[in-house]
């Protein structure tokens, strides 16, 4: 029941802030009538995201941003997605569902999404003890390190699940990535 209430609030926020044209972005992505739904059997990053309910808040914001096309059209893509629980725990769910989707905040939404996307298929080696940095799409580096059987992205986001797609990887996180990181020319791979 709580999930239905949250979806109703999100749909109302979409109508109030962006008009009826965005309404389909907040609806169930598994519907055959939804233009953003894809066949989960195609095993692409976008189809797996559509079939991953624990990431629906971030995925809805991603679809409102210009980055959904990046994910659906890229031959290779890696995405770092905070789970719904993570967003709700840290208070970021409201920010994504009601604030950043407003037209006047679109630039902030795009910059936030930039921190979570790499237009390449990148598998993090969970056995490596060397720190590394991934060059993400915003021109910065995303630090990655292994610590006590956990993979940490940025300063504190822990990878809770890794999903492999035919065109890349999805890393589910326990925190939203907020901070800008160093210039890409300095990335350590």
Descriptive report:
By secondary structure, the chain is an alpha+beta fold. The chain has helices at 2-18, 45-50, 56-64, 67-73, 84-90, 92-99, 106-114, and strands at 77-82, 117-118, 132-135, 141-147, 150-153, 157-165, 168-173. It contains seven helices and seven strands, in the order ααααβαααββββββ. It has one domain (44-186): FAS1 domain (Roll). The protein has a seven-stranded mixed sheet.
What does this entry show, briefly?
Helices cover 33% and strands 20% of the residues. The chain has 189 residues and is an alpha+beta fold.
Features:
20% strand, disordered N terminus, seven-stranded mixed beta sheet, alpha+beta, 33% helix, 189 residues, FAS1 domain, 7 helices
Write the layout of secondary structure elements.
Elements: H1 2-18, H2 45-50, H3 56-64, H4 67-73, E1 77-82, H5 84-90, H6 92-99, H7 106-114, E2 117-118, E3 132-135, E4 141-147, E5 150-153, E6 157-165, E7 168-173
Parallel strand pairs: 1-7
Antiparallel strand pairs: 1-2, 3-4, 4-5, 5-6, 6-7
